[in-house]
Design a protein that fits this description.
Elements: H1 2-21, H2 36-44, E1 50-54, H3 67-75, E2 80-84
Parallel strand pairs: 1-2
């Protein structure tokens, strides 16, 4: 439970920063107890754009997508931006 509270706190902090920077955009955050793939695909039905992260594990770091980001890229009903981590570990 504590990790979920921390994750939600980080998400709201990030949302606040992005909304200040890009006030003309409507940005939302949703939390779900469902597995990521079906939860994100459901959320994408109401979205104009979905942004997902990709950890880029393995030797072909820049070419591989994780199962969730790959599913979103192929199945989402809206455009999907897949964001990879930078060398310092941030997105």
């Amino acid at each position: 439970m504590e990790s979920r509270v921390q994750a939600e706190s980080v998400a709201w902090d990030e949302l606040t920063l992005w909304q200040r920077r890009y006030s003309e955009l409507r940005i939302s955050v949703e939390f779900s107890d469902e597995p990521p793939r079906p939860a994100l695909l459901e959320a994408a039905r109401k979205a104009r754009l979905v942004v997902v992260g990709a950890r880029g594990l393995g030797e072909l770091r820049g070419l591989l997508l994780g199962s969730v980001s790959q599913a979103m890229a192929h199945q989402a009903p809206c455009p999907v931006a897949v964001v990879h981590r930078s060398r310092n570990g941030s997105y």
